[in-house]
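The following record pairs a protein chain with its ligand, D-ribose.
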Amino acid sequence: MKLIIGGDEAGRPLVETLAAHLRAQGHAVTDDSANQTDPGERYAGLSERVARRVLSGEFDRGILCCGTGLGVSISANKVPGMRAALTHDVYSAQRARLSNNAQIITMGARVIGPELAKSVADAYLAVEFDPASHSKANVDAIDALDARARG
Ligand code: RB5
Protein backbone atom coordinates (compact mmCIF):
# COMPACT_ATOMS: atom_id res chain seq x y z
CA MET A 1 0.00 0.00 0.00
CA LYS A 2 1.17 3.57 -0.68
CA LEU A 3 1.24 5.29 2.69
CA ILE A 4 2.07 8.73 4.03
CA ILE A 5 3.05 9.25 7.65
CA GLY A 6 3.87 12.37 9.58
CA GLY A 7 4.35 13.74 13.03
CA ASP A 8 5.32 16.82 14.97
CA GLU A 9 8.30 16.89 17.31
CA ALA A 10 6.45 14.86 19.95
CA GLY A 11 5.23 12.34 17.41
CA ARG A 12 8.47 11.82 15.50
CA PRO A 13 9.81 8.85 17.53
CA LEU A 14 6.59 6.95 16.85
CA VAL A 15 6.61 7.99 13.18
CA GLU A 16 10.09 6.55 12.79
CA THR A 17 9.09 3.30 14.53
CA LEU A 18 5.98 2.90 12.39
CA ALA A 19 7.67 3.88 9.12
CA ALA A 20 10.38 1.25 9.62
CA HIS A 21 7.81 -1.38 10.59
CA LEU A 22 5.54 -0.68 7.64
CA ARG A 23 8.41 -0.57 5.14
CA ALA A 24 9.59 -3.94 6.43
CA GLN A 25 6.13 -5.24 5.58
CA GLY A 26 6.47 -4.06 2.00
CA HIS A 27 4.47 -0.84 2.13
CA ALA A 28 5.76 2.22 0.28
CA VAL A 29 5.99 4.78 3.06
CA THR A 30 6.61 8.52 2.66
CA ASP A 31 7.52 10.41 5.84
CA ASP A 32 6.16 13.93 5.47
CA SER A 33 6.78 15.02 9.05
CA ALA A 34 7.02 18.57 10.27
CA ASN A 35 10.44 20.09 10.77
CA GLN A 36 11.88 18.43 7.69
CA THR A 37 11.10 21.44 5.51
CA ASP A 38 10.01 24.12 7.99
CA PRO A 39 11.34 24.08 11.57
CA GLY A 40 8.51 26.36 12.66
CA GLU A 41 5.70 24.26 11.29
CA ARG A 42 2.89 23.44 13.73
CA TYR A 43 1.01 20.15 13.79
CA ALA A 44 -1.97 21.87 12.19
CA GLY A 45 -0.01 22.63 9.02
CA LEU A 46 1.52 19.19 8.91
CA SER A 47 -1.88 17.55 9.33
CA GLU A 48 -3.46 19.68 6.63
CA ARG A 49 -0.68 18.79 4.17
CA VAL A 50 -0.89 15.06 4.87
CA ALA A 51 -4.70 15.09 4.72
CA ARG A 52 -4.70 16.86 1.36
CA ARG A 53 -2.14 14.47 -0.07
CA VAL A 54 -4.31 11.51 0.92
CA LEU A 55 -7.53 13.10 -0.35
CA SER A 56 -5.87 13.91 -3.68
CA GLY A 57 -5.31 10.20 -4.25
CA GLU A 58 -1.53 10.51 -4.09
CA PHE A 59 -1.55 8.03 -1.18
CA ASP A 60 -3.87 5.19 -0.24
CA ARG A 61 -3.95 6.03 3.47
CA GLY A 62 -2.14 8.04 6.11
CA ILE A 63 -0.99 7.93 9.71
CA LEU A 64 -0.42 11.04 11.83
CA CYS A 65 1.30 11.20 15.21
CA CYS A 66 1.71 13.89 17.83
CA GLY A 67 2.04 13.72 21.61
CA THR A 68 -1.55 12.61 22.18
CA GLY A 69 -2.84 12.02 18.65
CA LEU A 70 -5.48 14.63 19.38
CA GLY A 71 -3.98 17.72 17.76
CA VAL A 72 -3.28 15.98 14.47
CA SER A 73 -6.73 14.37 14.45
CA ILE A 74 -8.54 17.63 15.13
CA SER A 75 -6.44 19.41 12.51
CA ALA A 76 -6.75 16.78 9.78
CA ASN A 77 -10.51 16.73 10.24
CA LYS A 78 -10.66 20.44 9.37
CA VAL A 79 -9.82 19.50 5.79
CA PRO A 80 -13.07 18.98 3.86
CA GLY A 81 -13.72 15.31 3.19
CA MET A 82 -11.25 14.00 5.74
CA ARG A 83 -12.26 11.36 8.27
CA ALA A 84 -9.24 11.00 10.57
CA ALA A 85 -9.68 8.67 13.55
CA LEU A 86 -7.76 8.62 16.82
CA THR A 87 -6.96 4.95 17.48
CA HIS A 88 -5.02 3.49 20.38
CA ASP A 89 -6.44 -0.05 20.28
CA VAL A 90 -6.73 -2.74 17.63
CA TYR A 91 -10.53 -2.96 17.60
CA SER A 92 -10.96 0.77 17.08
CA ALA A 93 -8.34 0.71 14.34
CA GLN A 94 -10.26 -1.98 12.47
CA ARG A 95 -13.56 -0.20 12.95
CA ALA A 96 -12.04 3.13 11.87
CA ARG A 97 -11.85 1.68 8.36
CA LEU A 98 -14.78 -0.77 8.43
CA SER A 99 -17.32 1.57 10.07
CA ASN A 100 -16.02 5.06 9.31
CA ASN A 101 -13.94 4.58 6.17
CA ALA A 102 -11.22 6.65 7.84
CA GLN A 103 -8.52 7.69 5.39
CA ILE A 104 -6.10 8.48 8.23
CA ILE A 105 -5.55 7.14 11.73
CA THR A 106 -3.78 9.12 14.42
CA MET A 107 -1.85 8.05 17.49
CA GLY A 108 -0.10 9.73 20.40
CA ALA A 109 3.54 8.91 21.01
CA ARG A 110 3.07 9.84 24.68
CA VAL A 111 0.04 7.56 24.98
CA ILE A 112 0.78 4.29 23.20
CA GLY A 113 3.84 2.04 23.26
CA PRO A 114 5.66 1.12 20.06
CA GLU A 115 4.56 -2.53 19.88
CA LEU A 116 0.88 -1.79 20.36
CA ALA A 117 1.17 1.07 17.87
CA LYS A 118 2.52 -1.35 15.26
CA SER A 119 -0.41 -3.71 15.90
CA VAL A 120 -2.86 -0.81 15.64
CA ALA A 121 -1.39 0.25 12.30
CA ASP A 122 -1.42 -3.34 11.02
CA ALA A 123 -5.05 -3.81 12.06
CA TYR A 124 -6.11 -0.61 10.31
CA LEU A 125 -4.28 -1.50 7.09
CA ALA A 126 -5.53 -5.10 7.04
CA VAL A 127 -9.18 -4.21 6.46
CA GLU A 128 -11.10 -2.34 3.79
CA PHE A 129 -14.36 -0.46 3.83
CA ASP A 130 -17.23 -2.29 2.12
CA PRO A 131 -19.47 0.15 0.26
CA ALA A 132 -22.23 -2.47 0.39
CA SER A 133 -22.17 -2.57 4.20
CA HIS A 134 -24.71 -0.89 6.48
CA SER A 135 -21.96 1.59 7.42
CA LYS A 136 -22.13 3.25 4.02
CA ALA A 137 -25.23 5.25 5.01
CA ASN A 138 -23.45 6.52 8.13
CA VAL A 139 -20.35 7.55 6.21
CA ASP A 140 -22.53 9.28 3.63
CA ALA A 141 -24.25 11.14 6.47
CA ILE A 142 -20.86 12.28 7.82
CA ASP A 143 -19.93 13.56 4.39
CA ALA A 144 -23.27 15.34 4.02
CA LEU A 145 -22.72 17.04 7.38
CA ASP A 146 -19.25 18.02 6.25
CA ALA A 147 -20.62 19.51 3.03
CA ARG A 148 -23.31 21.46 4.93
CA ALA A 149 -20.78 22.77 7.46
CA ARG A 150 -18.57 24.06 4.65
CA GLY A 151 -21.55 25.81 3.06
C1 RB5 B 1 3.35 18.84 21.86
O1 RB5 B 1 3.43 20.04 21.17
C2 RB5 B 1 1.90 18.36 21.94
O2 RB5 B 1 1.07 19.35 22.44
C3 RB5 B 1 1.38 17.93 20.59
O3 RB5 B 1 2.26 17.02 20.00
C4 RB5 B 1 0.04 17.23 20.59
O4 RB5 B 1 0.01 16.24 21.58
C5 RB5 B 1 -1.16 18.08 20.65
O5 RB5 B 1 -2.29 17.61 20.50
